Amino acid sequence: MPDKITTQWKGGLTFESDNPSGEMVTMDTSIEGQDKRYGLSPKAMMLSSLAGCSALDVISILDKMNITLDDFKIEVSGELTDEHPRYYKTVAVNYHFYGENLNTKKCERAVNLSIDKYCGVMEMFRQFSEVKTELFFH
């Protein structure tokens, strides 16, 4: 059965969207003259989806390798095209690993498996963006 979501208008430019897991997310955008934001912008959510997809892969793979980290984060930035419809033409994905005596080879292997084999969101981004990745060990 295909994934299905429903997005409901909540007034103004705010929307609430469900998820096949049952969880909800609020989306909106910047409005000139309005400082209050209620949710995430749809394009920024795409970057979060990319980070989340790859992060799930990396942590799952490292767990199977019995690798312990003190912390881990992914920073994603994207540059939009100038003309409409605006989309991310370039995306940088930076993986940050924290810990004592990190096994950098296994961390690199986990990232490469995510990038090349498992992360479907990464593959979707490759259809319209130049995706660059970099690893940092702290």
UniProtKB/TrEMBL annotation:
User: Which Pfam family, just one, is annotated for this protein?
Assistant: OsmC
> Which SUPFAM superfamilies is this protein grouped with?
OsmC-like
Q: Which residues form a coiled coil?
A: none
**InterPro entries per record:** KH_dom-like_a/b, OsmC/Ohr_fam, OsmC/Ohrsf
Q: What protein name applies here?
A: OsmC family protein
The transmembrane segments are none
- Species whose genome carries this gene: Microcosmobacter mediterraneus
